[in-house]
Amino acid sequence: MQDGTSAPQRIAVRSSGRNRRPDSARLRRLNILVGALSLPLFVGLWELASRSGAVNMVLFPPPTVVAAAVLEWIRSGQFLVDLTASLYRVTTGFMVGGALGILFGILTGQFPVMSSLLSPLFHILRPIPPIAFVPIVILWFGLSEAGKLFLVVWGVFFTVWLSTHIGVQKVDRGLIRAALMLGTPRRQMLQEIVLLGALPYIVVGLRTAVSISFYTLVAAELAGTFAGIVYRIEIAQQNMQTGQVMGGLAALGLISFIADRLFAVLAERTVWWR
Amino acid sequence: MQDGTSAPQRIAVRSSGRNRRPDSARLRRLNILVGALSLPLFVGLWELASRSGAVNMVLFPPPTVVAAAVLEWIRSGQFLVDLTASLYRVTTGFMVGGALGILFGILTGQFPVMSSLLSPLFHILRPIPPIAFVPIVILWFGLSEAGKLFLVVWGVFFTVWLSTHIGVQKVDRGLIRAALMLGTPRRQMLQEIVLLGALPYIVVGLRTAVSISFYTLVAAELAGTFAGIVYRIEIAQQNMQTGQVMGGLAALGLISFIADRLFAVLAERTVWWR
Amino acid sequence: MSGSRSIVKLALASSPASVDSARKQPAIQVSNLSIVFDTHRGQTVAVDRVSFDVAPGEFVCVVGPSGCGKSTVLNTIAGLEVPYEGDILVEGSPVGGPRPDVGMVFQQPHLFPWKSVRRNIAHGPRMHRKSRKEANAIADDLIAMIGLKRFADAYPNTLSGGMQQRVAIARALANQPRVLLMDEPFGALDAQTRAVMQDNLLELRDRIKATIVFVTHDIDEAILLADRVLIMSAGPGRILREVAVKLPRPRSSTIMVEPSYLSLKKDCLDVIRAEGARAFNQSDSN
Amino acid sequence: MSGSRSIVKLALASSPASVDSARKQPAIQVSNLSIVFDTHRGQTVAVDRVSFDVAPGEFVCVVGPSGCGKSTVLNTIAGLEVPYEGDILVEGSPVGGPRPDVGMVFQQPHLFPWKSVRRNIAHGPRMHRKSRKEANAIADDLIAMIGLKRFADAYPNTLSGGMQQRVAIARALANQPRVLLMDEPFGALDAQTRAVMQDNLLELRDRIKATIVFVTHDIDEAILLADRVLIMSAGPGRILREVAVKLPRPRSSTIMVEPSYLSLKKDCLDVIRAEGARAFNQSDSN
Amino acid sequence: ELLKARLAQNLGPISGLAIVAKSKGIFEKNGLDVTVANFTSGKQCLDTVIGGGADIATTAEAPVTAAAMAGQPIAFVAGMEYSDLKTVVTAKAAIKTRADLRDKRIGFTAGTGSEVYTATLLKSAGLTAKDVTLVNLRPQEMLPALAAGSIDAIDTWEPHIANAKKALGEAVAELDTSGTYSETFNIVVMRPYLDANPALIEKFIAALIDAEVWMKAHPDDAITVVADAVGMKRDELAPIWTDYVYRVRLDDRLVEILKTHSAWRLESGNHPPGAVMPDFSKVVVSEPLKKMAPERVTLSWK
Ligand SMILES: Nc1ncnc2c1ncn2[C@@H]1O[C@H](COP(=O)(O)OP(=O)(O)OP(=O)(O)O)[C@@H](O)[C@H]1O
Ligand SMILES: Nc1ncnc2c1ncn2[C@@H]1O[C@H](COP(=O)(O)OP(=O)(O)OP(=O)(O)O)[C@@H](O)[C@H]1O
Ligand SMILES: [Mg+2]
Ligand SMILES: [Mg+2]
């Protein structure tokens, strides 16, 4: 499995190989350069756009202002608290939702009866935005952390479920037949063939779910919280502290970026046979 | 490509075949029955839970109350207006975001330089919840419909981009090699091999994006709207019209369900070679 | 014409195996098997009323033109192709799905990409509740047999076509199935490796007393290995001839110059050649 | 030992083709080609300092034990396996990637699953800016040649293994490449179909004057088709022998009983047998 | 032994009394152990209390009337703050008087006091909703919309008015609408809870009164405490501090606002199904406050 940003084709490289494509080394260096410049370029453009006077600088602060706000936020010690709270919610919710999604995806993907029973329901519940039923969640869970986790789990679950479900149906039939002929019992079939065969799709679902889990954080941190990146963004928005708002958004982006990177590495290790 | 709820394995059936698996017809009938009962069962349980007195009936109204509210909503003529507005936003946003997602997914998936340049940026922007930057969108787009579409496009784009990107890298290398040896130029390679080879993944992305587009509708219809299902839900929530709130959520679910079904059928037709 | 009556047994070789099979319970009994595929272009009749029996312990080779339905017949006996018309009994019971005592080597290797060579081969024994150690021991024996000791820990995508095919064979053998269905198992092997594999297969068969149905497109191979050769017609596949091979075993490749061998081969080739020409024309005219 | 010096030409057959190639510019010039794969188990040397030339219009067959690097060499000449060590010139220019005048039939068919048989075959001509009509005409000719008229509109997943392989061959031929690399193209075909395809290939080669490198594991096929046979050693692959085949053309299968043919075959088989035994033992001992 | 209570609080200067009571330990002094959950709207606070997620809500009048009309057994035990809603207009729109609002695009927040304020404002200028374009926006989205030129005026509460003036400077001006409508911020509990815990509510009200007294005595400290709690900078809160009137009370004006709001709901259809004008003498429960500080209850109906 290749990670999101690596080159499409992996080529075994040996130092002594004389006949690599002549430009491949140069190309690789160019890629690294471009990759390293990508974000600075974006930040630079943002600074320019913001300072150009075309938009209101208070409402659309430049990165320098944002950086100052973030520094202030960090210095106050609040950032660490917010980060910890959000990270806890996202990771726990992601893991629970992901595990359930894989489980149910395999069940509905493999057993038609399960699919008949659950798929219509899941398809109907799937698009319901977590933020829209925050009141119901509070009703069920009170103001507990469980309710907040439920909202994150909601978003992650359906994403992972759908891609697992589709992935299960895309498992190479040749492999299933081979496993059948070797007397693989149903249980083992699921864990040894179906799960691994569907893995590329499951990974797509999980990686998509990384960002979904941040989407749902908005709903989760809307109600009855004291800390959390999105909670702080919300407060800052009320107070027109746009620097902190943007800083919070950037923090979300960075966390998820790191999470996704870790994830890609993990995925690459999981697909050990490549 | 199999649709989400169909049986995992398709078997050619002929009426005269004597040796189908003996229970397959009975199983199929059972499946249809279970499928037909799935939603009624859910609604029944909901009615029971709601009327049991365990939870506040005003905050968690039973389906009968919801149905009455929806009927009233429809009778007032407002429902059609809301539906049209939301449908317009979702479909347009979905199509634009999906098209862009596929385009950029193929670009970054196929060209390492593009990937180096754009992937880090996309990965950082990807998790940013649309609802969190509604103010910025208003600043850029004003209260135009374009801004609302932008929010929907945002959510759809990144989802489709990621799965296309991954899908492009999963295209059977044997096919690419075969096409290369047949002198396929780069442009044609993209449209004849890469796009079709990545199609299963793209479809996963698009189907996930169906529900994401409804998630983002919350952000889109929060500001400066006059009609829309989520807008109406929002208002109804303020007014404690919980029946209408639930009705609106159910409407979202149903629309997306139908959309997904249409989509699955379309996907099945697109993968014509199966 | 009905399938079973259309089988013309060559006079010069009335097979004792098929006489046997009339007395004992046949290991495989196929009667009037027809298989039709639905495609977007309408229905394709892949197999048309095929009937044959295989006695316990018999080694039957199936030859026939490309696309005549050999793989389809094998898949159906394996319980993988449903629905079908007609009756198939394996060891007396009708076929409804894959069963543990029937092994199969597919035309494509279909190795599990996430398992090393050793674990691919050990998969079957593991599924039959053997301990990891036992299963690995079985696998290592077979790995030695297929000459891939150096590649025991390699993953399938790093193997050449012929190496993959050998692993697939070993994987099917690891279960010691009572009935073994093999679909062109040696198709991707060079002559030398193939000869070694043939010897190994025959030796193993004698040890585990398996019944084998073996698809090949190499007449020499068929005659060298088989107790009986079934020659199929071009698609829709029917059985054209049944040729019993009564040459003494063990047969070394030196028998290829003996007259009895050559006459058998000539008989087969004549049937095949006539049919082959017809097949090519038929598929062109339709 | 260095690759080029290790090639021992059989005395009985000093090939005029290789004399030719010394004068004219060779179509393919491989010198000191080595290929190493990185795997999780360390590096596998697939090809070890292989050198050979192929003259324009020459038909060279490559035989060798399973896993000896035949496919790897072909892929490298095709420009698909980078990086490599050594030098490869095709029609005088170094190989850096796939090029339009080199065609390839892979060991696996690799058909485009979303294209019908006709459109698979028409793909190459379409990419070379032929009109749909022209491309379809070319495809239909080739479909007739491979005997799949009835399946022109079928999709690859509804074809048998041999049918797929024939489509893959037709697809490569449709481009009329100047250099044609074929990796066990007839491996999945029955004897009869294979003979027809062999004839067709030779006829087409005469028409388009292509240079052909053809991997096979069938010595008879190699001698029947080739101007020269390269025999490779077990992996890491080296070239063991180069055997020129000076039998007159056209060669029908009846030459298989002629003494010159038999002596050629015996020579080849001796080399192969010795090597094969060594290979099996070597891979087991390591 | 402290009595435990869960407070659902809208985190903003409007909750100033509760914030001070919590951070200055005034709850504890009154024998309470209060757990605070923060929300960004009073509506969510009340929903949480109705759903059983918290015991005491701070909320504006709008959620109160909605809940009362939905037949929820809520008890309105005290008002604790009120502040005027205000209007900011863009300079470009050349709005000098209320009457100039005709044909202009006005941002308001549906379902909140802002909506009632807007209706009242228009009525006072002799206009109806048809004479203007009303645009529903959350307060934090009004500024960007103003800046983008999508609307000409906004009707909202502090600190958004001050923020707008600060962010947009010369481009905007405040329209004088003082006295048009005050949004109130109040303490609401469920009736069964009140009946079961009368002493707790009394202590809670007493704590708020103590907080009010402390705030009067230490206005500078109060600004600092509140600004800290809500995440504002002190010098942002100070200029608008006087806009927030903190006073624990039950008076006719409060009831009047509730009635006005309910009437607007009934008139505009923004009400739960089958709602009628609630009997506020049942919703407003004056006993606890009367017990603690009778002088603060000035209801004419009792
Ligand atoms: N899944 C399928 N859908 C439709 N038709 C099929 C399918 N599988 C096989 N067929 C058709 O059935 C016929 C027999 O195919 P089969 O694979 O059994 O041939 P075969 O004898 O094994 O040929 P080969 O020697 O080339 O492997 C062919 O005409 C083929 O097109
Ligand atoms: N992608 C790969 N990664 C690692 N090793 C590989 C890879 N491809 C081939 N090899 C190794 O290179 C060697 C030569 O493989 P190759 O496919 O060229 O053999 P071959 O001569 O074509 O064999 P066959 O006749 O079985 O097709 C083998 O040992 C194989 O394991
Ligand atoms: Mg076959
Ligand atoms: Mg090979």
Automatic annotation (TrEMBL), chains C, D:
GO terms for molecular function: ATP binding; ATP hydrolysis activity. Belongs to the ABC transporter superfamily. GO terms for biological process: quaternary ammonium group transport. It comes from the Bacteria. Involved in beta-(1-->2)glucan export. Transmembrane domains (TMD) form a pore in the inner membrane and the ATP-binding domain (NBD) is responsible for energy generation. Keywords: ATP-binding, Nucleotide-binding, Transport. Pfam families: ABC_tran (PF00005). This is Sulfonate ABC transporter ATP-binding protein. Transmembrane segments: none annotated. Residues 28-259 form the ABC transporter domain.
